[in-house]
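Q&A log
Question type: sequence-to-structure
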Amino acid sequence: MFQVNFLPWRARQLKRRYHFWRNLFLLQAIMLITGIMLISLLWHSEHLQQQVTIRLLLQQQKVL
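Response status: OK
Response body:
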């Protein structure tokens, strides 16, 4: 007996839907990873800037 779910147009439709949701998930994952990397980079640069500021203040304190 031929089942409706195995019709070629139905299989193509299911495959298109699967690809759409897979691509949407991958896009979200890439955006999340990019956001985490951006935040990490900004935090790291601010941390370095604070280290430089502390070094300069310590040098000024030694001079006084």
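Response note: The chain has one domain: 4-63.
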